[in-house]
User: Fold these one by one.
Assistant:
Number 1:
Amino acid sequence: MAEKTQAELLREQLFYEPKNAYDKLSEADIEAAEAFSKGYKAFLDEAKMEREAVSFAVKLLEEKGFVPHEPGKKYRPGERIYYNNRGKALCAAVIGSRPLEKGVRILASHIDSPRVDLKPRPLYEEAGLGYFKTHYYGGIKKYQWGALPLSLHGVIALRDGTQVTVRLGEEADEPVFCITDLLPHLAAEQVKRPLAQGLKGEELNILIGSRPFKDDKASEKVKLAILKLLFDKYGITEADFLSAELCGLPAGSARDVGFDCSLIGAYGHDDRVCAYTSLMGALQVENPEVTWVVVFADKEEVGSEGNTGLHSSFLKYFIYDLAEAAGVSGRAVLSHSQCLSADVNAAFDPTFADVYEKRNSCFINYGVVITKYTGSRGKSGTNDASAEFMGKVRSILDDADVLWQTGELGKVDIGGGGTVAMYVSALDVDTVDIGVPVLSMHAPFEVVSKMDVYCTYKAFEAFCRASGK
Ligand code: MN
Ligand code: MN
């Protein structure tokens, strides 16, 4: 082999070039990524909405010896606790050996994804067909939700205090539902609408049946027949929809994508991919030096509002409880804490290259993506991590040999977005966004790479394992 020229040596020393995982990682890593992706796909299928993700996590945590958090109880290093916030959000922690007032390490992801929620009075009949009226949740391109098999997920709270769990349309022998779209033959006017109105909000009506109740005299016989079926199956009447949270989700399982099966396609990678990788990564660290806290938040897709979203106080109260029991101030703990806001970024898509600034985009297969800031316009509505904390995270990942890249959410002034980062940093916690690059984000079928998922898992493990010195 010819000796390297001075320019080549200098390039190696001075240039920064992100690397493709398939060039950088070993065969053993590639196999480990494939194995990890199997568990992730099972999680995607079982935990399609926030309540299901919390149930999945609680079951796993209890198997691993975690117990419900008791405010006021003093914990020793190595103890494992969780707090289930109303079945829709979660904190889990393992107490570290370092004194709590020196801070904790937080991994905060969200487990809600864009979808179509049922309205409080959803059920109606029109022209012999039964429908649910919906109100979409989060940022969707509404036209993508027509002519697609949908499943129904959620809960119905009954007047007697009991709760009915609904999950229908995921198994092969179960029916699915769908929003109908107009045939092209009659869509001459519809196709001239702006894309945002391809299907309008009030056109997102879910078809749920057509067989009328057998009775010549009654009216709304299809609606009546559907209500009879619902009563027989779930014990509910029409009024019970008022105290329900039901949503239509894309039906079906996560699938490998590509001849090489290198990618995973599924509904709701954003942000269950970071929820799963953060929990699995943290669980690798059984006796941490620094207390780790994994947070699953709800409501991120609608601005983190509500008492299960991170704009509320549930994370702060959880940390304050730990601090109080340890006899230190909650403020001291938070001010010395660090957080990885675990959320996805938009992977460079060559089909739509003009919305990305290529030098500052993240790429599929280039590893976990660190996003210094999100927001829009002049960095409005963002956390914008400090140089110091970026440097800290960078050195943790490099020391653990984790493949990472950086990314910005599209070109300047082309759009933007936000994450939970600004709500955690508002607690005086050093915070930066980090997660998995995603193609077709917020579509009913999003795509991620198995290597990126694996690198993200490794990054979260490294963060929880890192020394607190
Ligand atoms: Mn997200
Ligand atoms: Mn999102």
Note: The chain has a mean pLDDT of 97.
Number 2:
Amino acid sequence: MSSAEVLQGGLDLLAVALLALGIKGLSKIRSARAANRLAASAMGLAVVGLLINAHPTAVTWIWIAGGTAVGGVLGALTARLVPMTAMPETVALFNGCGGLSSLLVALGVMLAAKGEGLTPSLLVLISVGLSVVVGAITCTGSVVAMGKLQGWLTTPGWMMRRWRHGCNIALATGVLMAAVLTVVGSSDALWPLVIGASLLGIGLTLPIGGADMPVVISLLNSYSGVAAAAAGFVVGQRLLIVAGAMVGAAGLILTQVMCAGMNRSLTAVLFGGALGVASAGSKENSEYTNITSCSAEECALTLEAAERVVVVPGYGLAVAQAQHTLREVARLLEKHGVAVTYAIHPVAGRMPGHMNVLLAEADVPYEQLKEMDVINSEFPATDVVLVLGANDVVNPQAKTDPDSPLYGMPVLDVQEARTVFVVKRSMGAGYSGIKNDLFERPNTSMLFGDAKQVLSNVLGELKVLGVGQ
Ligand code: NAP
């Protein structure tokens, strides 16, 4: 073993350790930023290891360094320019890029071997088959997922029909046959394999409803890890194998957590498709009869008299970018002696951890964030609940109405508190598109308006009352 190989091995080992620490750190808001840096350094070390042990020609180095620079600049620009609300689409695009890279690596190795008249080993052939199939499905599936989340794509009518399952099964059978032919050494099957798997990615993702899309994105994230691990076997890179396996496992765990949060089975998400739960759209709902609305002044007066206040953030808070104003309101109340906590529903917002990230941006102390299971038992002893741009996650019908599309989804029992203020712009529905019984409860008051504007008004009223001054 050459000294360059030994050095690369050492760097790979260090990178794996940093990557593992990074993934662990991402599970806590406080350590997430540092964890991200650790994982990025791990990738940096991997590139250095490659450069040290690469074929010592200027061309090889230029390709590696050039690719790293282009990818790094694009990543940095994306991190700066993309707003939080567009993060699911961005993650989808990144997954697609991961799938495409693995696909291209496998294709490159096969085409190079064909050009030189060599037959790769059985392990490499199996890995190529896996990289191409999973990579192509991930790539086209992720592009479709991004298009659907952006509103660029909708499910065509014929995709709503059950016979689409027949088409997908036929495609999957073709892909399997092409994969077997590739593994036994027929290079002619390679392009049909690429095309079939790409079509399968579209066929599997296009019928899936918008509300289920973040679950699919997390599953595609897992696939991109599997494809990368397979590509690692193709090019004999240990680090790629380990990192791919970590991403694959993490994506699968996240998928399970999200399915549990929405009370949907993975099978229902994948094969229920457009026949499943209704998706996005803020439909105006005229069925409401007993609605009480109030002013920012009344809300401020109730908050001033409260001892315990629970804030329930939802998607609308992110849309309004009202987290900083919310933090100012909370600071005043805390100075006044009010205990303020935040109830975090696992699928509030539009991506896992959306609310945690949003509140962390405004420096909300992590200890004040409470998981749904913990906070639900505390609502009966709560004076005021402030629901900010949240809807489905506080809909009591999820527990009471077996016909509701939300039935079975765990929700925050805010109606158990003494007073509930719901801040939103209209009587429009949430993501599920259905009515919310909470708005008609006798202890609920609606505060209509953009969350940031309403919170600024409440802040102004609290200052007039001298709260926290
Ligand atoms: P939601 O049910 O979609 O409701 C958001 C509410 O915010 C809407 O009713 C809207 O009402 C209001 N709103 C929008 N813009 C606003 C603004 N500028 N100011 C004030 N209010 C505003 O959101 P959620 O309660 O957070 O529930 C999340 C939903 O997404 C669930 O159905 C969940 O299953 C789904 N989902 C989440 C994930 C995830 O990973 N987090 C994944 C998949 C699906 P108005 O239009 O009247 O203002």
Note: The mean pLDDT is 90.
